[in-house]
Amino acid sequence: MSRVFCTMILVLLVASCGGSSTPPRNLDNACSIVTQRPEYLKAFRATERKWGLPIHVQMATIHQESSFRSNARTPHKYLLGVIPNGRVSSAFGYSQALDGTWDDYRAATGRRGARRDRIRDATDFMGWYMTQTKERNGVSLYDARNQYLAYHEGHSGYARGSYRSKAWLLNVANRVESRAQTYQTQLATCRRAR
Predict the structure, then answer these.
(1) pTM attached to this predicted model
(2) CA distance 143 to 121
C-alpha cells in the first residue's frame, strides 16, 4: 500500500475515536436521542447500574452542560475585547468537567484512560460526582435541580449556599429539573429505553 493511502486510513481511524461532535437531532425528545445514539443509552444504563444515577438526570445534565456535543468547550476570553486570551474555564466534553475535577475522578476510580469526549466516560464521571454530592451534601440522586446546583458550584460551594445569590443559576437549575421530568416521562413510553 502506498504511504498516502496508509496515512489517510490512519487519519480516518483517529478522527473516528472519541465521541460524535454532532449532537443528535431533536434534543427535546429522549426517545429520539437514544434511538439515534444507542451507545448513549448503553452508557446511561451502565452508569445507572453502577452509581444509581437515573438516566433522566444524566440526560438533563448533559443537555444543559454540552447539548450532547462531545467536544463542547467554554467560550474564549478576550483582552481589550478583541485579543483571544484562553477560555473561560477548562470545562470540556459532554459533562463539561473541569481539568482538576476530571483528574480527581480518574485517580479515585483508577480510570486513567477515561476521556471527557467519550459518552461512557462522561456519564461515569457524572455518576461518581453526583454520588459524592449525595454522600457529602445529602442530595438525592433523583433531585435533578439540587444535583445540578452542586455540580455547577462544587460540593463546598453548594454546602455554603453560593447558588442562592445567583438568580440566573437558579433559573438554569429549574430548567434542568423540568427537562429531567420531561425526559423521565418520555423514557417511560419509548420501546428502546425499556
Answers:
(1) 0.83
(2) 22
